[in-house]
Design goal:
The protein is mostly beta strands and 464 residues long. It folds into two domains: 138 residues, Sandwich (Jelly Rolls), CATH 2.60.120; 320 residues, YVTN repeat-like/Quinoprotein amine dehydrogenase (Methylamine Dehydrogenase, Chain H), CATH 2.130.10. It contains one helix and 42 strands. The strands form nine sheets. Strands 2, 3, 35, 36, 38, 39 and 41 form a seven-stranded antiparallel β-sheet that branches. The protein is globular and about 75 Å long. The relative contact order is 0.16.
Length: 464
């Protein structure tokens, strides 16, 4: 009989209720394929450039086709040939950095100070205008203005038109509809979004000569304490939300109304994060699928939402101890027809590609924990499990890639020793991936892992 292979990461607090995990595998649906759904391997990483010793704190591809990263306390420009050039020095060497582009200048904020890099002259300078607030949380751009929020107040400030080095003491306003502190002012799909810890206000450009922005809505009871998760994708804004009842729900706003997109299982992971302000997001598009990646903080792995399938999976780096860590990437700059990912560990800039099968030479461990199999707690004899791997992909060395199977009979609390079989050397397309003599169990849970550096595609599982 056919059993469910494909699914999202959906581990509940009770593993015996639901222990599903999908790590470094992407659930894909295709009603016209050989099966309605499959699991495909996530992209790997290869070194493209190095920006000092790092770690990378953020990056941006700007409107004129140039690419910038901040690693440690230095702003670097990276060319299409992978050459990294220092463009300026920040006052801090740690923490998340935000960017904004006005077409003429790049604005950079390190969570305390802000800086401007002018494209025409390649001049980098800290904003020292006496009318600029002393401590700012982030920077964005809207309608010709850089906009920043002053930390621990409700105030936001705008720059002179297309000039981030000039600020006027009167060019500020306050988010007033609710008493919570303003944590970020962002371009909210063409409007100005003011997100407090518990609320959201929307302002628009009215063209008033005294101050161009005016509030157009009352407060919506969804804010954030994770301001670096706020990200615009296509015509929507996404973020990890918070309000007076709590936090850890991921929202999408198409228009001005937040809609929940996270599942209970994802929210369990987010609500366990000890410092939500350390969470961050990045995005990229590949093969028509747009991905939202949530990483940072105390997450065990990075959480990924596929906007096309609306399913969540996990991405992880395999640490030296054999345990999962968060994905190496903290940002993704989509430039030079490449996805360039900055490393959380050092100054490495990686190219992310589906035809790279390692994380810069280190194994990518792909794991799927199936749904539990149970028949009213009746003992069931399991004879064979056949897994629909794309076979014959092989290793560059000519070897036979191996897949491992473990079985749990107690709801994924403990596991058997691993059983291993091959998926076929290069050209062995007729290879069958079969495990036999699986035993008698009342509850049966399968876990498969695959770490060899070759293409991974799995379609269907069949059990006797």
């Amino acid at each position: 009989m056919k059993i469910a292979l494909v699914g999202p990461s959906y581990q509940q607090r009770s593993l015996s209720f639901d222990a599903q995990r999908t790590v470094n595998l992407i659930p894909i649906s295709d009603p016209q394929g050989s099966d309605v759904a499959s699991l495909l391997g996530t992209p790997g990483l290869s070194l493209f450039s190095t920006c000092g010793v790092g770690p990378v704190r953020g990056g941006l591809d700007v409107s004129n086709g140039r690419a910038f990263f901040v690693a440690s306390n230095t702003l670097y420009e990276v060319t299409s040939a992978g050459v990294a050039t220092s463009r300026g020095t920040l006052n801090t060497s740690s923490g998340i950095v935000t960017f904004a582009d006005n077409g003429l200048q790049l604005g950079i904020c390190d969570g305390n100070d802000a800086y401007i890099f002018t494209y025409a002259t390649n001049v980098f300078a800290q904003i020292t205008d006496p009318d600029f607030p002393s401590v700012v949380g982030g920077i964005d751009f809207i309608d010709g203005y850089f906009v920043v929020n002053e930390v621990d107040t409700g105030k936001f400030y705008i720059s002179a038109l297309y000039n981030g080095l000039t600020w006027d003491a009167l060019d500020f306003a306050t988010a007033e509809s609710s008493p919570d502190k303003l944590v970020r002012a962002v371009n909210f799909v063409g409007q100005l979004g003011l997100l407090g810890e518990d609320t959201l206000e929307i302002w628009r450009n009215t063209g008033d000569s005294d101050f161009p922005f005016s509030r157009i809505s009352g407060s919506t009871p969804v804010g954030t304490v994770a301001p670096n998760t706020i990200i615009s994708i296509d015509t929507s804004v996404y973020w990890v939300g918070h309000n007076s009842q709590g936090g850890g729900i991921v929202y999408k706003a198409q228009g001005f109304t937040p809609t929940r997109i996270s599942t209970e299982a994802i929210e369990i992971k987010l609500q366990q994060v000890t410092d939500p302000s350390a969470l961050r997001t990045w995005t990229y598009q590949q093969d028509g699928h747009v991905y939202l990646v949530i990483t940072g903080g105390s997450l065990e792995t990075s959480l990924v939402y596929d906007l096309s399938t609306q399913l969540w999976h996990e991405r992880a780096f395999l640490g030296v101890t054999g345990d999962y860590e968060q994905h190496l990437g903290v940002c993704c700059v989509n430039v030079f027809n490449k996805h360039l990912v900055g490393s959380r560990r050092d100054g490495s800039i990686y190219e992310m590609s589906l035809t790279t099968y390692t994380d810069n030479g280190l194994p990518i461990q792909r794991r799927r924990i199936y749904t539990h199999l149970i028949d009213e707690l009746k003992p069931v004899r399991y004879s064979t499990l056949q897994i629909g791997f794309e076979t014959g992909t092989g290793l560059e060395s000519g070897g036979d890639p191996q897949v491992s199977l473990r079985i749990s009979k107690d709801g994924a609390r403990t596991w058997s020793s691993a059983f291993t079989t091959g998926i076929g050397a290069v050209g062995n397309y007729g290879k069958e991936v079969v495990f036999r003599r699986l035993g008698i169990k009342q509850i049966c849970t399968f876990e498969i892992t695959f770490s060899d550096p070759c293409k991974c595609a799995i379609t269907g599982s069949y059990l006797q």
